[in-house]
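Posting this for the archive.
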Amino acid sequence: MSSSGAPHGLLFVLSAPSGVGKTTVVEAAIRRTPRLTRSRSYTSRQASDGEIDGVDYHFITRERFEAMRAGDQFLEWAEYSGNLYGTSQVDTERVLAGGDDLVLVIDVQGGAKIRRRGWPAVYVFVLPPSFEVLERRLRERKRDTEAQIQRRLDVARQEVAAVSAYDYILINDTVEECVGTLQAIVQAERARRAGDTGDAHAAAIARAGRAIRGAMEDVIAPILAGFARPRS
């Protein structure tokens, strides 16, 4: 990472189980927040109908992905269903060095890898209002077989167990509220970086403070308990 005195962007690592609505929340926050952008992962899989290279993912060959991996060009990478996915270190450094803030939407394993690499980042986890709501949302998407839905729910149980490693916790009950709180987190972290104590920034810090993990224990406890219950 750059050690120059130039303005440097903030890195936000956002994780959530599949079906929570994290992409919708992040994209809405980016549209409303100047100088906030989302990282685009690289993948070895083929683009699906409607997906655009450089917008949804960077679609590359498996051979190129493996060469990039061998050259230690990924901040983190993983393999799912035979396809490779990764976050480019060069792309990340370029955005941050330009002074923009960057959101990485990655799973908890990817977040843990970035943490182990020692990258300064703000970690945000998005929860559904309950396990039952998550299951309903997955079914309403009508994208997966029953076996795939159960697999996603099993993975979700594992992922929410890592929530204690995150700085902020959001609950995506209503998209507007969740987006607003994510914006407040970005504004609060920017204010802390700049040492800004103005009224607007103080209000953002106060709102973001309600999402700090330590302030959310009573709220998230029943949600986590719902994920911990054995499958019926």
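The first strand starts at residue 11 and ends at 15. The chain has a mean pLDDT of 90.
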